[in-house]
Amino acid sequence: MEGSAGTGQEEPATCMFCGSGEERIPLLSLRYQGGQAFICPRCLPRLIHPERAGGASPHGQAG
Fold first, then answer.
1. Which long-range contacts (CB under 8 A, 24 or more apart) does 42-46 make?
2. Fewer CB within 10 A of the terminal residue: the chain, N end or C end?
């Protein structure tokens, strides 16, 4: 998580697919090509099997 510019506060983490926040469900942290994202356990199959979930992946490419 990156802090907000100059405020010292962190942005709340949310799942990259469903938007659920860390206050509601545990989130896993991912790093890819210098970026960071979060995913909840419910949406993890969408990341692992993008061909079954309409081609959604964190880098915009199917499979």
1. 42/15, 42/18, 43/15, 43/16, 43/17, 43/18, 46/17
2. C
